[in-house]
Amino acid sequence: MRKLLASLAITIGAVGAAHADLEADADAAAGKEKAVACAACHGQEGISPSGAFPNLAGQQASYLAKQIMDIRDGNRVVPQMAGQVDNFSDQDAWDVAKFFADKQAALGQADDDELLVERGRELYRAGDMAKGIPACAACHTPTGQGIGTAVYPALSGQHTDYVVSTLQDFAAGNRANDPANIMRDIASKMSDRDMEAVANYVLGLH
Fold first, then answer.
1. What is the mean pLDDT of each run of 10 residues along the chain (206 residues)?
2. Residue 206 annotated in ligand binding
3. Rounded CA gap, 35 and 41, in Å?
4. Is 159 annotated among the ligand-binding residues?
5. Which domain holds residue 149?
6. pTM for the full predicted model
7. Which segments constitute the Cytochrome c domain (predicted)?
């Protein structure tokens, strides 16, 4: 656990300044033009009509830019995104990321199942020391806004289906673009019920 927390601290310090400069140069207006094709899956305002696709509105620009470039470069495989960003420059990635980051984030309503909510709250705010799972809030903040300087994404209002499938992909090693294996290590220790509980909790978190 201590080793993992140390990795988190190192990651924040290593990427912060560089991403701040790139984000400052991003052009949301240019990003709007490039993002036209994104609307089919992610919605015109970055709020996806389907739980299979993530909401992008209000997401950390640094995280979105990284995902776009990782998909473009083959470091993250998303079949539905095949060919979509192949011709994007780094600047294009940052411009589109800025466009969506500036949008109003989605607000969701969690399922009110008491046991599910309680387990989700426990994992998100305190983690599970017996399983070696740190609190989600350590990286994603207590309100789920994420930490842009560390490229940690916002989770607030995200679709439950997407959160669960993402955790499953990390746990299985099918997704491997997380810094220092952080999410792969955490997700591999979570049960299906844990994943469902966290996904439900962050849907209503703001």
1. 57 58 88 96 97 98 98 97 97 98 95 97 98 98 97 98 98 97 98 98 96
2. no
3. 11
4. no
5. 114-204
6. 0.91
7. 26-104, 115-206
Is 19 flagged in the annotation as binding?
no
List helix spans (H) across the chain: 2-24, 28-34, 39-42, 61-72, 90-101, 114-125, 137-140, 160-172, 182-187, 192-203
Residues 97 and 161 in one domain: no
| 129 assigned ligand-binding residue | no
- Establish whether 183 is an annotated binding residue: yes
Q: How far apart are CA 120 and CA 195, in angstroms?
A: 8
Q: Output the six-digit token pair for 184.
A: 């792969």
The answer to the question of whether 41 is labelled as a binding residue is yes
94 and 139 inside one domain? no
Pairwise CA distance, residues 107 & 205, whole Å: 8
CATH number at residue 132: 1.10.760.10
Distance CA 102, CA 170 (A): 28
Q: Are 64 and 100 in contact (CB under 8 A)?
A: yes
- Inter-CA distances, 144 with 105, 114, 193, Å: 11, 20, 20
Number of domains in the chain: 2
Which pair of tokens denotes residue 170? 């990390």
Structure-block tokens of residue 104: 């109003």
